[in-house]
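Case study 2.
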Amino acid sequence: MDVVERLPLEAASAHTLPRLERVHRYELAAELCLGARTLDLCCGTGYGSGLLARTAASVVGVDSDAATIDAAVHAIDQPNVAFEVDDAHAYLRRLEPSDFDVVVCFDAIEHLQDRDDALASLRRLATAGVRLVLSMPNRCVSVQEKGSHGSDFDFERACDICDSFENVQLLYQFLAEGSLIRGPEPVTGSFPMRGRLAEHGEIEWANTYLALVNFASDDGQLLPSGRANLALAPVHGRYLKVLERANVDLWRTNARLGREQLGQYDAAAAATMLKLRDLERRAEEAERRAAAAQQRADREADNANLRLQEIERLRGQLAIERSGSIAGLAHVIRALRRGR
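Prediction:
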């Protein structure tokens, strides 16, 4: 996997839609891994391994990038989680069915160099009874360019992969809109919700496909048919305001150019089309700048939170050091008094 495609640890704790989408999948997998020896293949920064470990008997996270695994080791402090640096293909080939009860592999198959080899290894494990929880992004709704995340899977391809396994269920993950009303203090924990499933979504346009292999038929009821796992986070007004200003600027530019061009002769139509194309290019550039500004603002906020956490950690260490120094000084004084 490419390091760029991994969800950074700071992003894994942010209130963003990509984070909620990924965490939602891991929370579903955690329910399916209750009491199981679990492999989190291509685990990235390990936030998902930590979620799985809340219910699993043990979790081993494997990723090919040493720096990413090092970050995971320092960030995930749970006694039943371990991390290893290894190539996914080599690890799967060595794996014995008795090593794990469940293999979780999210947003990774599309990045592997030899996809057929990896799927063959997974089928070998599944045939021996190992349960699998896999996810595949839908290229039809992906904003990534060809060759990057989600570029190779659509509904038909996901069905083909599922058909290559026995005892498999295919689930569909959709992103949805929502509304949150809160007071001046942040909302903590769970709270009552009233909801209605008005639209079921077109499965060909699901954001992500999830394959459950070797699970009991009633396990598939965790998501559809009257029960949904919902994760809500407010859409930040600051970001929307940036888009709103960009839209206003674009509208004014369009209106001005329209007034200028409508006053010309019909013979200038070709030149007008060229100018409109240039306007479209500038509008796209304005949108990119707005998105970049939002990303910088988010990074600054995340860095500020990390700095505050580091300050609190250092204060805790200082308090411990002071306590130890005082205890040591008292011990010396008592020793001197006994020597008189």
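The beta strands are 37-41, 58-63, 81-85, 102-105, 131-137, 168-173, 208-213.
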